[in-house]
Design a protein that fits this description.
- 27% of the residues lie in helices and 36% in strands.
- Strands 8, 9, 10, 11, 12, 13, 14, 15 and 16 form a nine-stranded mixed β-sheet that branches. The chain has a five-stranded antiparallel β-sheet with strand order 4-3-2-1-5, with no helix packed on it. A two-stranded antiparallel sheet has the order 6-7.
- α4 crosses α7.
C-alpha cells in the first residue's frame, strides 16, 4: 500500500468497481499521488483529480517517472513505422517523406515532416500541397508531437483541420509474453488468407492494390489467424519486424463481434510477440486513437505506454 512518502510520485492504483458472477471487477488509474487520508487517496490523472476510497483499492504501487523521448527517439520510431506500413509511392522533400497509396489509410497517404526539408517551412508546406494535388489526393501531414509543433502552428494558420489524436504506444516484448499465457491456437502465416483480407477490408473500407502492397511489402512479417472448431476466422492481426530488427509493429488487430471479450486480441498480440522475440526484436509498438478507450485499456494491461503522439492534419477542401 502507498504511504505518505509516496505523495508527489506517479502511482498506479487498481480498484474494485463491482462484482460480476461472484468475481470482482477491476479498473486501473494512473496519476500523481496528491494526498492520502485515513479514508481515501487523491490522484491527479490526465482526466483530472480522482478520489479513491481506500477500501476499494486492491493494490497500488509507485511507477517510474515518465521519460519524454528525445527527437532522435521519435524520428527512429516514426521511420520504423514507415518501414512497417510502406506506401507504394514515396518521395523525399529533404528529410521529409511524401507518401501515397491510392488514399488507403492516413498513414499511407500523408507527409511525414521529420528532419530538414531543405527549404523554409512555408515553402515546404507549399511543396507538400502541390505534390498531393498532382497525385490526386487531399494533402495530409502527420505531425509527431512535440517534434513537429512548429509545423502544426503553420498548418493552423493555413486553416488545416486535424483528425483525432493518435497515440504511439510501446511495450517490452517480454512483458507482453509474460502477461498472456497461450490459451488459443494462433496460426502465423507469411501471407494473409482470403478471410483475413475480408475482415481487414471490412475494417478499412476495401483493399485496393496499394493496400495489398502496404500489407505485404515488408521482409519480416506474419499474419495471425484464430479459427473456431468450424473453421471460421474469429481474430486477426498483422506483425512486422522493422527498425533494424528491434521493433515489432502491431496493426489490424481485429476480433469479429461475436467473439469479442474472449481474450482473442491478447492471444494474437502475444503470439506475434513470441515470434518477434525469436526473430531478435525486443520491443513492440502500435498506433491507437486516444479516444479508443477499450483498446487503450487492453494495451495498458499488456504493458503498453505512450511513447509520443501525432495528429493527422488535413488541408482545407478546395
Amino acid at each position: 500500500m502507498l504511504r505518505q512518502q509516496d505523495v508527489g510520485h506517479r502511482v498506479v492504483v487498481r480498484r474494485i468497481v463491482g462484482v460480476r458472477n461472484n468475481r470482482p471487477l477491476y479498473t486501473d488509474a494512473l496519476g500523481e499521488l496528491v494526498e492520502i487520508t485515513e479514508t481515501d487517496l487523491t490522484l491527479a490523472t490526465a482526466k483530472g483529480p480522482l478520489r479513491v476510497p481506500l477500501d476499494e483499492i486492491h493494490r497500488a504501487k509507485r511507477v517510474p517517472p515518465r521519460r519524454r523521448p528525445n527527437a532522435a527517439d521519435v524520428i527512429a520510431l516514426e521511420l520504423a513505422a514507415n518501414e512497417a506500413w510502406p506506401a507504394p509511392v514515396q518521395d523525399h522533400l529533404g528529410g521529409w517523406l511524401l507518401r501515397a497509396a491510392d488514399g488507403w489509410t492516413g498513414r499511407g497517404n500523408s507527409a511525414l515532416p521529420i528532419g530538414d526539408p531543405d527549404r523554409p517551412l512555408e515553402a515546404a508546406i507549399d511543396a507538400v500541397e502541390r505534390w498531393y494535388v498532382e497525385h490526386g489526393l487531399r494533402p495530409l501531414i502527420n505531425t509527431p508531437l512535440p517534434l513537429a509543433t512548429p509545423v502544426g502552428a503553420s498548418l493552423d494558420a493555413r486553416g488545416w483541420s486535424a483528425r483525432p489524436l493518435t497515440l504511439v504506444q510501446t511495450a517490452p516484448l517480454r512483458a507482453i509474453v509474460d502477461a498472456v499465457p497461450p490459451r488459443a491456437k494462433v496460426q502465423l502465416a507469411h501471407a494473409p488468407s482470403d478471410d483475413w483480407l475480408a475482415i481487414a477490408a471490412g475494417r478499412k473500407g476495401g483493399l485496393p492494390a496499394a493496400a495489398r502492397h502496404i500489407l505485404t511489402a515488408v521482409r519480416q512479417l506474419r499474419f495471425a489467424h484464430v479459427y473456431d472448431e468450424n473453421g471460421r476466422l474469429l481474430a486477426i492481426a498483422r506483425g512486422t519486424v522493422t527498425g533494424e530488427g528491434q521493433w515489432l509493429c502491431l496493426a489490424l488487430i481485429e476480433v469479429v463481434p461475436e467473439a469479442q471479450r474472449g481474450g482473442l486480441a491478447q492471444q494474437v498480440i502475444a503470439a506475434l510477440a513470441r515470434w518477434a522475440s525469436e526473430a531478435g526484436a525486443t520491443r513492440a509498438f502500435l498506433q491507437v486513437e486516444e479516444r479508443n478507450t477499450a483498446a487503450n485499456a487492453l494495451y495498458s494491461k499488456l504493458g503498453f505506454t505512450t511513447h509520443h503522439s501525432y495528429l493527422t492534419r488535413e488541408a482545407p477542401l478546395p
